[in-house]
Specification:
Elements lengths: L7 H46 L13 H18 L5 H22 L9 H19 L2 H17 L4 H30 L1
Helix pairs in contact: 1-2, 1-3, 1-6, 3-4, 4-5, 4-6, 5-6
Amino acid sequence: MSEKELSKDESLQLISDMITQAKRNLARGGSFYFLLWGWVVMLANLGHYFIYKYELYPYPFIVWSLTIPALIASMVHGARSSKRAQVKSHLDRIYGLVWLGVMICIVITLVFMSKVNYNVNAIILCFAALGTFISGCMLRFNPLVMGGAALWVASIIAFNVTPNDQYLVGAIGILAGYLIPGYLLKKVESEQV
């Protein structure tokens, strides 16, 4: 069986179709992650802030245990989405690797948080900003690009406030960087169905 050589126009159309399909795959379930992690991280930030500020419990970091079920939900959703994807392109893999890299950076930061006196929120916001900004650029979805910028601004502010106030700044940053763009992305996804 001989392979047909594609013309220049056919090659460009094939590439264009693959990019369009990859963007559909990414956009189809992308809001799930931004909304899930947005709510979990925002609530954990607010919980930590208020528990510490009002001395409600001696271990305010306990609220971060909310991330464990969120991680499990993310993995289950990712596995199901991967099975449903019609085409898995290079762009899909890069998108996943960007967020894997962000997660690795966050885990390394958390493992060594004693080296920065447990003031990791500003650093984590910076990593989240990078992933969000790149996601917005890959999807050509400006609310995510602007969400990444909002997270960078929150990171800068968090570097300049008290350790506990970093949690309040983090919550506001996540609202602007994850939740607002996440709901806008969900609206776009529902219009595509």
